[in-house]
Every structure is written in structure tokens, then in C-alpha cells.
Amino acid sequence: MNDYSYLRTILTSDSIEVLVKAFKSLSNEGLEVYVANSNKGFKLATEKSLKSGDVLMVPAADWNFAEELLECIDLKEYVTNCEIPENAKSEVEIAQEKYFKKRKWTYIETAVIIVVVMIYYLFKTIFH
After folding, report:
1. Measured CA distances, 102 to 41, 46, 97, 106, 108 (Å)
2. Alpha-carbon distances, residue 81 vs 44, 56, 60, 66, 112 (angstroms)
3. pTM above 0.70, yes or no
4. Backbone φ/ψ region at 72: left (φ over 0), alpha (ψ -120 to 50), beta
5. Non-local CB neighbours of 84 within 8 Å, separated by 6+ positions
6. Distance between CA atoms of 101 and 80, rounded to whole angstroms?
7. Comparison of pLDDT for 14 and 89, the residue scoring more
8. Which of 73, 89, 108, 124 is the most buried (most CB within 10 A)?
9. HEC profile of the chain
10. What is the dihedral of CA 85, 88, 91, 93, to 10 degrees?
11. 75 contact partners, CB below 8 Å, separation of at least 6
12. Lowest-pLDDT range of 7-21, 80-94, 101-115
């Protein structure tokens, strides 16, 4: 699996005309524009590969410039937040998230056990 964590969402629309207009504006300025692939990957967009409901993505370094371009052509209402697409995370990042989530629950379980033991010890010392 390739690491596409450098991609950020820039625009989403159900209108193919809006997507094509945005794609042309971004690509004419030399920006790489990506769309989701059918096999949960990403590919460089072409005018023919765009379909209704696609989410256009650009590299994170170009996001601010792309946002300014889209504002200039009156597509500000379609601009999304600068977010990493869900399936763009690398296998290492996914494994790290799982590890940290498990670690967090281990800490919570440990804290609960310590509190229960303290309550038991207090109960035994007071009522014995």
C-alpha cells in the first residue's frame, strides 16, 4: 500500500461541472489533483476520470494555494477542510493508532483496578 498521507481534501461536489471547473483551474496552475481510486487507493485525476460525488485532493503543501485559486473562481462554497482522507493513512499510521488506542485502554483498566484495590483496603481497615 502506498503512503498517501500527504494528500488533503480540497473540494467536494455532486455536480460534475463544478468538479471539472475546479480540476481545470488547479491543473492549469501546475497542481497535482487526485481522486479516490476504486481499490481504496488514489490516482491522479483527469478530466475524463471525474465523476459526480468525487472528492478532489491536493498535496498538503499546495492546499492554501489551491484554496485561493478556488475562491477566485467562485467555488468557495465547495471547499472542504484541510483533512487527510481516511484511506490515505499508511499501514504504519494505522498500526500506531491501534497501538495507542489499546495502550489508552490499558491505562484506564489499570486505574480502575488501583481505585478498586484502594477502596477495598480502606473498607477493610475501617470496618475490621
Report:
1. 27, 41, 9, 6, 10
2. 20, 12, 12, 12, 38
3. no
4. alpha
5. 5, 7, 8
6. 28
7. 14
8. 89
9. CCCCCCEEEEEECCCHHHHHHHHHHHHHCCCCCEEECCCCCEEECCCCCCCCCCEEEEEHHHHHHHHHHHHHCCCHHHECCCCCCHHHCCHHHHHHHHHHHHHHHHHHHHHHHHHHHHHHHHHHHHCC
10. -40
11. 11, 18, 21, 22
12. 80-94
- How far apart CA 10 and CA 127 sit, in angstroms, is 65
Cell numbers at 109, concatenated? 483498566
Place of cell 500506531: 96
The rounded distance, in Å, linking the Cα atoms of 53 and 14 is 4
CA dist., res. 94 & res. 14, Å (int): 30
Beta bridge partners of 44: 34
